[in-house]
Every structure is written in structure tokens, then in C-alpha cells.
Amino acid sequence: MPFIHYDEVEKEYVTPKHSTAYGELATGESIEVGRLSFKSGEGAERHQHPHEQIVVILKGKLRVNLGDEEAVLEAGSGFHAPPNVPHGVTALADTEVLSCKSVLGGVGHRI
To answer: 107: pLDDT confidence band, cut at 50, 70 and 90?
Structure first.
């Protein structure tokens, strides 16, 4: 899959155990990139995983809890969640993100 057309990828709830993130995933051997959305008020409960993750906000606004810190981030900002660091997000507006997560043991976002 050398070329990815996210508009043609089937949307799914990618981490229903922890989150309402909904969108498309593209998975490689060691990284997975999701174009995901949250409606205002939705988000991901505080959780942690062995995957490294970087999230970039494309539009909207998120309240992010990361370790012992909290920030409100808007489009053009993002965050880095190192492995096993507790984190969670709440959408303060309808929000779209790119979520990049390492693939460990064949698993990325679908934890």
C-alpha cells in the first residue's frame, strides 16, 4: 500500500476500549497513522500503552492530560505520548487529528 487515500479507507472506531476516536488507519510494519475525529465532548479516557504516540491536531480543540501535565491545544499543535505514560483527551470542539502510533507485535491503535 504505497499510496494512501484516506477518503477511500473504511472508517472505524479504532480504540473503543478507551476512546470514541473514529476514522481511518494506514498500517505499516512499524508505524500506524490514523486520521481520526472526535465530536465535541468526546475523547479518550486516561490510559497508557507500550506504544509511542504523536498526535497532531488538524482542526478543532483538545484538552490533553499527559503524565502530570494538562494543556488545551488547537489546530497546528500536538503532543507526544512516550510509551507507558498515562494520557487522555477531551474534545472541546469537533476535532480532527492525525494520530501516529508505533506498531508493536503487529498492534497499533487497535489495543
So the answer is: confident
